Amino acid sequence: MVWDVCIWRDMGPLIRLETTLTGDGYLSILPVHLHSFMSIVHSDGLGQFQQDNATPHASRVATKWLQEHSSDFRHFHCPPKSPEMSIIEDIRDALLHAVENRSPPPRAPMDLWTILKDEWCELPPRFLQTFVESMPHRVAALLCVRGDPTRY
Q1: Would you call 92 helix, strand, or coil by DSSP?
Q2: What is the pLDDT of residue 146?
Q3: Which of 4, 12, 51, 122 has its CA 20 to 30 A from that of 114?
């Protein structure tokens, strides 16, 4: 399992997780990886962090931490049952496709990790920007269906 972050113009760190992510585990990622990344790319505090509603993301400890750091960057609250609001799913699909097309395919977990890091770094900025630019359309579609799942 991996954790990742990106912005309109650049990919952030790709973090390898050794175990299933819990709220406490997520809390260990936020200050070290998210906060430092956002501090560098959005030192003005105008950055916007978006995540899905996975259980660790919505945990009390993570929610409290994000509230405590709201002056450092904004947090986009993803509506429940709206995975189409998360561009990271599209990016992960592209990574999966790239891994599946590798020849030879990864044979060991370390090979997979190496390939994932390589592919993560190879994603062109325009690829990422296309997904970020789609957010107004995704939000409009979500508003049209009053928060229900969309076909976006």
Answers
A1: helix
A2: 77
A3: 51
